[in-house]
Amino acid sequence: MGSRILVIEDEPGIADYLVRGLQEEGYTVGHAPDGLKGWKLLQAEPWDVILLDWTIPEIDGLELLTRFRQINAVTPVLFLTARDSISDRVSGLNAGAEDYLCKPFAFEELLARIGSLLRRRLVTAVSIISHGDVSVDLATQRAERAGHKIDLTARELSLLVFLIRNSGKVMVRKEIYEHVWDDTYDGVSNTLEVHVMELRRKLEAHGSRLIQTVRGQGYIYANGGTG
């Protein structure tokens, strides 16, 4: 069975063109004609790449992507849309899309972009990181502690992965914001503290504290302590 691609597109002609073309290339293809059906398929089945139109009925593409990234931080999404302004591209990428291709497009270019996304996903799919009794499967976005599944939001998962990868080192707030939020720390927002508090709560349901506060600096991921 080939890689699984979900096409979320409401225009019948374009949808048929994509589905037939991708099937001829050996992909297993699903199709949703609106955002609501797309949302159901996104939750019900595993996909390797999502091709997402922006202007679709029921739930528009940007909102659908935002919802999807709350439950899945890994599966690549390619916006396939007639919205070609710079602001639209920025909004789509900031919402969590990996790529953005404007209509009309050459099918050969679409195939090349899908191939690139699949190669990146393949690298991610074999990546499992761990520290002590905590592990994260980056392909399935499954986090566990001592064998217990931990339900995390996409942002909490990203924060945990970043801290594990830098375990034993003090990570200042500026670094965390730049890597997890892709933003600059303004010195005022308490967004990071709120996420750390919630992540601690979920981790500590199955063991001792791992994320320690280093006063005046930031946080360190390490065993022991009460900070």
Keywords for this entry:
single chain, 227 residues, alpha/beta, Rossmann fold, Arc Repressor Mutant, subunit A, 2 domains, five-stranded parallel β-sheet, four-stranded antiparallel β-sheet, 8 helices, 12 strands, elongated
How would you characterize this protein structure?
There is one protein chain. The chain is α/β, with parallel strands linked by helices and 227 residues long. It has 2 domains: 122 residues, Rossmann fold (3-Layer(aba) Sandwich); 94 residues, Winged helix-like DNA-binding domain superfamily/Winged helix DNA-binding domain (Arc Repressor Mutant, subunit A). 42% of the residues lie in helices and 22% in strands. It is built from 8 helices and 12 strands. The radius of gyration is 20 Å and the shape is elongated. The N and C termini lie far apart (50 Å). The mean pLDDT is 85.
Give me the CATH superfamily of the largest domain.
Response regulator
Termini distance? 50 Å
Shape descriptor reads elongated
Low-confidence stretches: none
Second rung of CATH, namely the architecture of the largest domain: 3-Layer(aba) Sandwich
What share of the residues does DSSP label as strand, in percent?
Answer: 15-25%
What is the number of beta strands?
12
> What would CATH call the class of the largest domain?
Alpha Beta
Query: Into how many domains do the coordinates divide?
Result: 2
Compressed to H and E, one letter per element, the order equals EHEHEHEHEHEEEEHEHHEE
